[in-house]
Amino acid sequence: MTEPSTYPVPAEWAEKARVDAKRYDQLYGLALADPGSFWLEQAKRLDWIKRPEIAGDWSFDEADFRIRWFADGKLNVSANCIDRHLKTRGDQVAILWEPDSPDEAPRSYTYRQLHAEVCRFANVLKAAGARKGDRITIYMPMIPEAAFALLACTRIGAIHSVVFGGFSPEALAGRITDCDSTIVVTADEGRRGGKHVPLKANVDEAAKHVRCLDKVVVVKATGGEVAMQDGRDIWYHEAAAAVSADCPVEPMGAEDPLFILYTSGSTGKPKGVLHSTGGYLLWASLTHELVFDYRPGQIYWCAADIGWVTGHSYIVYGPLANGATTLMYEGLPNWPTPSRIWQVVDRHKVEILYTAPTALRALMKEGDDFVTATSRASLKLLGTVGEPINPEAWRWYHSVVGEERCPIVDTWWQTETGGAMITPMPGATALKPGSATKPMFGVEPQIVDGEGTILNGATEGNLVIARSWPGQMRTVWGDHARFFQTYFTTFPGKYTTGDGCRRDEDGYYWITGRVDDVINVSGHRMGTAEVESALVQHEKVAEAAVVGMPHDIKGQGIYAYVTLNANCEASEDLRAELRQWVRTEIGPIATPDAIQFAPGLPKTRSGKIMRRILRKIAEGDVSPQALGDTSTLADPAVVDDLVANRVTR
Ligand code: WT7
After folding, report:
1. Residue nearest atom 12 of ligand 1, based on CA coordinates
2. Binding residues for Mg(2+), per the UniProt record (predicted)?
């Protein structure tokens, strides 16, 4: 039997969905033809303290470079995510929390309870000295208090910077320092898959390398032993008992900063991606409603971590702005059993599930029985994000998990874009496995060649976005020049995504992966330069070059070529030591999957490393055609050595 290449919109979806195919075409056209009125109309979905009269005001040209949306509007994000729902759905569950272990009881918070929790958290932050515009670093496990902390920051106008709990003390210290955070919010420990993560101890370690830090607010999550430093550390539960459960909202300009989120780029240290208040919230809320066709009362689960942008936009801000019930899960999809994710679906009657291809591939490998042993009858819609999904995993998700009744929304976006950019809408878009399909309203994708020439029709090249959209990042924290340089100079006048892309004859977009020195490991972005700089800090390493390699589960793995200093001996022990070294320097997600000790790296006569060749060798494609012309290398013989000593781990 041949698998269909296109899955038409099911009739019942076309009928009941908010946006059907005809409406999609109309609204897509309108948003491009008259963006001013389109976006002012859309802005009505938010509660404004002062309603905006101007929509987009932007230019991607160097001379008058600016990105502003709804700049004359005033609003508060926590009022939009909580207060405005109190009258209509105060007793509806806002956050449903599933703990790491299935033997523990879930917790839930209604919108009214959420209001009290967030107000208290905001008052604790204020008592710790937080003011509008201050940066607060949040280094938390996936517990409800993490969401309270985010919302509390927005309530008082502080800018949060969430650092994923899997990052090392070194990485945390760098992020605290970069944005001059005075307060860190953390927990005693995190838990994942039964293992404890010493978050507070990591903060203590990070604090040794940081000058700006004033207070550490510690949530008691596991009750694990921690050291508290007098005058600096505050137990959240003690401080919360002493403050009021009411806190007024700070009126914010739409362009006031909302949060910073660090992400890896192709060069240097991670960039602090800055999102602003009005445009971001509008984008998160609109896309959450349309992409998932979210209906009041539905249980919705985005199985990401709050440490990544997916968690920001689709666990917290989008769903809560829409008055949804959002499920937050502390643990892993496959612990204690590969059925766990589906058991959580059944336990909470989840209707919409949003997860990543890497999780699906890992679960698929365990066999269908772990899926079919569960009901999943509540599921109506499935989503995926983070990396291209291979058609095989797509079809498994569709037929085995969704029993062919659930459309799949494959959403392409980035930390920088704030929310979904190229994505199906379930009532409007016929699906093709592996394609993120069509652009969201207001998104104008283009495919350009290396010179920036626009390629029309069915084609392949670099994906750029030709105009601004409300959810676009506004700057790199502390380095506006780097923002312009990174995203607007490769193809002047356009936003460069860093992704390669194919467009087919039906106008569907197929992301082919990064075209820069960024690799996508399990849906998480890793800059090769970051891993290289960690490696060369080891005393025995003279030089390192890192590239991506294909990986069955992770999508891409990390392949490191390492040249040792003279008199240093390559060994299995050293290989293990270097892996551990990178884990300590950056975090487990950066652990190299393969390390090849290389006496020399392929360089041009001017000393530039030929990464193209290193990528091919890591991929195992060592044919002369793949390796191409090596005659321009300073020493062509190094390639033979690299090929002969290729490793798989
Ligand atoms: C990069 C952005 C968006 C939140 C999670 C990752 C890749 C993301 C898809 C998709 C193909 C995808 C791109 C993009 N990517 N979603 N549906 N299909 N590729 O956010 O860490 O900022 O990474 O992830 O390469 O540029 P991020």
Report:
1. 387
2. 536, 538, 541
Q: What is the pLDDT of residue 1?
A: 55
CA 384 to ligand 1: nearest atom: 17
In sequence order, what are the residues at sequence separation of 6 or more whose Cβ sits closer than 8 angstroms to the Cβ of residue 407?
A: 7, 9, 10, 13, 381, 382, 424, 426, 431
Q: CB of 464 within 8 A of CB of 448? A: yes
In the predicted model, is pLDDT for residue 272 greater than 70?
yes
* 415 known ligand binder: yes
Q: For ligand 1, pick from 288, 387, 462, 510 the residue to mutate: most ligand atoms within 8 Å of CB.
A: 387
- 479 pLDDT more than 90: yes
Q: Which two tokens stand for residue 576?
A: 């293990």
Percent of the chain residues topping a pLDDT of 70: 100
Written as six digits, the tokens of 249 are 């909202």
Show the beta-strand stretches assigned E in 13-145.
56-59, 66-69, 74-75, 93-98, 107-110, 135-139
Does the CB atom of residue 263 touch ligand 1 within 6 A?
yes
C-alpha 511 – ligand 1 centre gap (Å): 9
Structure tokens at 120: 């208290």
- The token pair that represents 262 in the structure block: 């660090």
Mean pLDDT over 366-389 rounds to 97
Task: State which amino acid sits at residue 83.
Answer: D
Evaluate: CB of 411 within 6 angstroms of ligand 1.
Answer: yes
For ligand 1, mutation pick of 414, 497, 515 (most atoms within 8 Å of CB): 414
> Among 125, 123, 127, 121, which Cα is nearest to 148's?
121
CA separation for the pair 250, 645 (Å, rounded): 61
ipTM here: 0.99
For residue 74, is pLDDT > 80?
yes
Tokens of 204: 């203590």
Tokens 């790296």 belong to 601
* Alpha carbons 493 and 508: distance in angstroms, whole number: 24
* Cα separation, 275 vs 280, whole angstroms: 6
Q: Ligand 1 pocket, 434 CB below 6 A?
A: no
Residue environment code for 604-622, b if the CB has 16+ CB neighbours within 10 A, otherwise e: eeeeebbbebbbbbbeeeb
* Residue 523, amino acid: G
Instruction: Tell me the CA distances in angstroms from 136 to 167, 264, 406, 418, one per residue in order.
Output: 17, 20, 40, 20
Which of the 8 DSSP states describes residue 529? H
| DSSP classification of residue 346 | H
What is the end-to-end Cα distance of the chain in Å, rounded?
A: 37
Residue 548 CA, ligand 1 centroid: distance in Å: 15
Interval 271-278 mean pLDDT: 98
